[in-house]
Amino acid sequence: MRIVVPSDSMRRFIEAGLLLAVAVAVLAFGGTAPQFFALTQGIVLLLGIFQLIAGRSPAAASTRYPIIIPFFLIALVLLQIAPIPFSMASALEIAAAGPHGHSYFTVSASPYETVSHLLLLVTYVTAFYLVLALCEEQTARRRLVFVLLGIGTFEAFYGLVQYLTGWQQIFFYVKKYYLEDATGTYINRNHFAGLLEMLLPFAVVYALQKFWNLRRIARSEDIRRARKILSSREFPSLVLWVFVAAVLFAALASSRSRMGIISTLVSLIAMVAMAGTSSMSARVRLSLGALFLCGMIGLAIWIGSDPVISRFNTLSDQYHHPGHDRVSIWWDTLQLIRRHPIVGTGFGTFAVVYPSVQTAFLNNVVDHAHCDYLEIISELGLPGGIALFGAIFWVLGLTIRRCRRSGREEDKVIAFGCLGSTVAILLHSLADFNLYIPANALVFVIILALAWSNTGREARPGVSSLTQSLERKPVPQIEHEDDVLPAIR
Fold it and tell me: Which residues make Cβ contacts (< 8 Å) with residue 9, sequence separation at least 6?
């Protein structure tokens, strides 16, 4: 099934509306306030309807809709809220019980919550398809990334102001929790870190692209190469992207989210490792590593390392106190999965059904499993969980393969950025529930759509890759940043 590509004017309208919806979700407590996120949902769904009505189908589109997994998940959630005869309970491995006199039941333990999450799922799927339609235009993909980075930079500055000045407010709302940490416009520091860790890889890879372009000039034997570097249009771009990356990382460290910091470092290592499979020289990799290390040391001195280190010193406390740690919640969640292995308990019903197996935090309400993988499988069943995460890892695999292929420089940048973002959020999801935070889930869906659209772009013959071009002969002067995209022979 080919995507429906909008006309230029409609594309701009859809693009602006989608980015507005993302900004509203992020700024309004990360979308955790339903009354605010409803505005985002309305915008996205209306844009989807507008796209279906006014879109046009091109003769040759390079991107196709993936339809099996999205519609399978929607069908599964619809099944969870549909009335089912009690006679089918044993076939679905459900211990069904309902009001006396009723001959049917619903898989979902709380149909209202499942319907609410179904609307969220439809919103994410719609946003995914909208991004695919927009990504038929090369410059639209770049604009999407730039605006997301702009939103992330604003969040980072906001969080740094909170951390460095002690002004712990989210606009007019006075924070009650995490009063010593940066949270931006989010309530929870871990979800604030989840947003930044998805966006930081793009800033890093753009900075690396400018660095590599300037390195071509530096390899010139011209005695005026220093003047050429400083006068090149690449130099201020490099300074800008290094600044953006530094601000994002500083804010992430100020959140003191241990899993956020770990996930970010692992994602950056994964990006460098992928770049290291090319012909990049050991000297270049050593230089980049040294620059990155110096940057981290400088940021640690600026924001103060003691608060972050103290957070890691308490890491073992989270996993060695039975009944008061995340591991206990994970074991309880496994019990839910064993009880409802096929169709789950209903999308969004974890907080409702968890008390039936609760052995951790007995005096508290546990509303999430603090592991997206376990929580989603418990709610959607093994088939639903495998389908969802299998599709995500499939896109990740295609992105890794795309990073290794030759092609346009911009495609390589998008591929490396999507790789780092996906690795970071998937790793963070092992110990948190970022995918249940609407704004973060929406941003992740957009990144997945960017990755999917990017994998469908065929490499152009004779065009060198981002990393392979490092060992090509140097260009004496770069007049414009687009001049580095064609092949250097």
Answer: none
**Which residue in 199, 148, 198, 180 sits closest to 22, CA to CA?**
148
Partner residues linked to 104 by β-bridges: 85
Given a cut of 60, whether residue 281 has pLDDT beyond it is no
Give tens-digit pLDDT for 32-66: 998 899 999 999 999 999 988 876 554 445 567 78
Pairing, β 104-105 against β 169-170: unpaired
**List of E strands, 340-415:** none
Identify the domain containing residue 372 by its residue range. 8-470
- What whole-number distance in Å separates Cα of residue 118 and Cα of residue 75? 10
Whether 454 contacts 399, CB under 8 Å:
yes
Does residue 131 lie in a domain region? yes
**Residue 2 falls within a domain, yes or no?**
no
Residue 355 lies in a domain: yes
- The whole-number average pLDDT for the span 223-230 is 61
Residue 383's nearest CA partner among 79, 89, 66 is 79
Please give the angle made by the CA atoms of 378, 336 and 104, to the nearest 5 degrees.
85
- The whole-angstrom separation of Cα 365 and Cα 127 is 32
Residue 85 has φ and ψ, to the nearest 5°, of: -60, 145
Which of 472, 477, 213, 415 is CA-nearest to residue 487?
A: 472
C-alpha–C-alpha distance, residues 73 and 122, integer Å: 10
Question: Backbone phi, then psi, for 384, in 5-degree steps?
Answer: -65, -45
Q: Look at residue 1 and tell me whether its pLDDT is greater than 60.
A: no
In a domain, 360, yes or no: yes
Number of domains in the chain: 1
Show the tokens assigned to 396: 């990740």
Q: How far apart are CA 19 and CA 416, in angstroms?
A: 22
